[in-house]
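In practice, a research group might receive sequence data for several interacting partners and want a quick structural hypothesis before committing to experiments. The following worked case mirrors that situation: the sequences arrive first, and a predicted assembly follows.
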Amino acid sequence: MAYATAHHEEHHHEHDEEIKVMGFWIFLVTDCILFGALFATYAVLVNHTAGGLTGKEFFEVPGFVSETFILLTSSFTSGLAVLSMHKGKIKPLIGWLIVTLLLGVCFVGLEIHEFQTMVHEGATISTSAFFTAFYTLVSTHGLHVSVGIIWMISITIQLKRYGITSVTKRKVTIISLYWHFLDAVWIFLYTVVYLMGVM
Amino acid sequence: MLDKLKDFSSHFFVTGEPMIYGADVAILLTLAGIIFVLTYLKKWKWLWREWLTTVDHKKIGIMYMLSSLLMLFRGGVDALLMRMQLAFPQWHFLDSNHYNEIFTTHGTIMILFMAMPLMFAFFNIVVPLQIGARDVAYPFLNAVSFWLFFFGAMLFNLSFVIGGSPDAGWLSYPPLSGMQFSPGPGQDFYIWGIQISGIGSLASGINFIMTILKMRAPGMKLMHMPLFTWSVLASCIIIIFAFPVLTVTLALLFIDRFFDGHLFTMTGGGNPMMYINLIWMWGHPEVYIVVLPAFGIFSEIVATFSQKKIFGYKSMVFSMMIISVLSYFTWVHHFFTMGAGANVNVFFAITTMAIGIPTGVKVFNWLFTMFRGRIQMTQPMLWTIAFIPCFVVGGATGVMLSAAPADYQYHNSYFLVAHFHQVLIGGVVFGFFAGLYYWWPKMFGFKLNDRLGKWAFWTWNIGFYVCFMPQYALGFMGMTRRIYTYDFDMGWGPLNVISTVGAFFMGIGFIFQAWQILHGIKYGERDVTGDPWNGRTLEWSIPSPPPHYNFAVIPTVTGQDAWWTIKEERKKKKAKETAAFSPIHMPKNSGIPFIMSIFWFIAGFGLTFHWVWVAIFGLTGVGACLLARSFQYNSDYYIPVDEIQHTEDSVGRVG
Ligand code: HEM
Ligand SMILES: [Cu+2]
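A structural hypothesis for the assembly, expressed as tokens:
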């Protein structure tokens, strides 16, 4: 009986964790639509500069290329973290997560720096419809990354405390899904906003 | 110092309106009364333990229902005030500004804080029971959804006495809702009240999709699911596609207002049409979000009270799925007249008319189910039958509106007001009333009085036609919506008086229903069988009200109408097999959803008044609650077998 209950319990928990991961996929679908609406707004307003400045004058190629590079790398390191988790190795798991979140911090730092320079040079959120749309779209992504960083710190602490269990495993799986998703969104941002902006 | 305080409070509190002072007093008295009663009866602990921290889907459903009925009252009072103002030409009961505030809050409250939560009430109360589950997929998230709705609605309602109500219409089109024309906090109350409760709705959408896909009893294939559950699935699919758009739209409006942005302003290159497109990309699907579950309710009721299997099950499922997809491609019909060009208008006119087809299929299926059935005229059935002609007329006027050239004539006229009330009241509200009468015994263990119910039914129905039929005519006579008064020589007076009388009849209907509930609590006929209607689906297989774990033993399903099948089998075998219990895994209660939603409320309040530090404080609190939850590891427990045995013995159903 004791065995049966324990077995039952384990089965139950795995089922629960699986449902949570699937639910997160649906959440990502809703987030896709959220970004989709923002992209649509941006696309409508991209030429609405009210006769003033355009993105071309402000986007700095080295800046956004290094942001891209850093974010792509962090997506890779979060993948390495998941690999270590599947091998059951806690130390590299925590290590890669920390590398990932540090890269995330660098990304957010660069973005804030980019915004600061732009504002300094006279392109604020209220300059024109184009800039409102630009800041809104890019900083929504940046906000997502920042939330991801805090979340990842919390999961790292939990891993230290509880080790690799079915619960922490699910949490790592979910945060890495989230992180890859933000990476994918950034690739669109990079193309639609920055590349097409400087071309 | 004192002058400063005076100055502040005269802006902060809404002053100068006797009605609002009355509301102030009423709110304070009610609050004092509640606090006194709870303290006197020593019920604080009980309230906290049994309700505020609950994660039980049935209790959450009941809380949704109560809040929504309260909001129906508030929205209804708004409606009566408007109808009173419009009853006579050149009447000066309300001034124009007050009228604007009232139609805005009425529309917003009715759709977002009455229809939506009443719908979630049914999701919560019925879906897990119908699919043989012990809970929803994410019980904690479910509680979060409820409290977000609740505090969002409270924030919105607060605008009446603090700061001032929004007055730019229920969809708040810019530039009217922008800083230039709505400088006060009213519009920000609108944004944050809806935003906060909207996040909760989105979470509910995800929650119920996963519940339906993953928590069904063994053997229940998708094509065995009761039609109400199917309608919930269809509605949730629309929710997850539509609500993120609402989130974005409101956020963008706020960015324009708070950061002085130019997305929708006429200066700075903004484009107000973008807002109108976005809001209707949510707004049109929204009406299908609330009407599909009503369709699901009718399907259950028609089958039960015709004592037959539903006619055309597969076509019912199929048409709901088609509606959920099509509903996303019709939004432009809300602004045919705004210069989109002929081709665009034609496309959206056709998609709009196309929705009528699957809807028609459903109506015929209900009629065929009733045909040659042994129909029982119970209260739920009455409302269902009243719905059919009402919806047919509403649908027909809808098709009239969807013809783009003709819409140039009806657009923004009272014809439209009559049309959408006909589908919203006849379809959604009547549907939800039918559902309330149908599942009431399951929720509370007693039936509602028939005689009072009939009074409520007839006053509502007669009132409805008296109120809204004249409005179609008024539309043709040139009366436009959202006007607060008109001249004698327009000739609109007589029909407006009639319409107002009808509105009061509906108000009387509501009073009968409130009376019915109070009467039922005292004298209601107990339901000891758990199956008062001789039902067909699994919720009727357990006692009323159900124990908190729902099913002591999860049933195995072999086809449609699972409970009916089980009953038939039992009749044949005569003996009831007794299954052995095993411990049941349940989630623990938690105070976090409630506390987190209070922080959201604080954040929303801060953002409304543009008090940055209050907002930051609130949002930090929200973050802290999320982290606290993330670190909570033992959030569930097992109910031991003897406790289940004990509970089952004490609620033991007869028969
Ligand atoms: C119970 C009886 C009701 C009455 C007598 C009533 C009456 C009215 C009136 C007089 C208006 C203002 C029309 C105008 O001046 O343009 C209005 C607007 C509206 N009503 Fe109702 N209503 C009722 C129920 C409902 C319900 C149940 C819903 C939704 C579920 C609803 C949704 C709306 C909406 C969305 C508006 C538009 C607000 C706006 O123009 O921004 N109403 N109603
Ligand atoms: Cu529509």
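Before designing any experiment, note the following. The two ends of chain A are 70 Å apart (CA to CA). Chain A touches chain B at residues 5, 8-9, 12, 19-20, 22-23, 26-27, 29-31, 33-34, 37-38, 40-41, 44-45, 48-50, 125-130, 132-133, 136, 150-151, 154-155, 158, 162, 167, 171 (CB under 8 Å).
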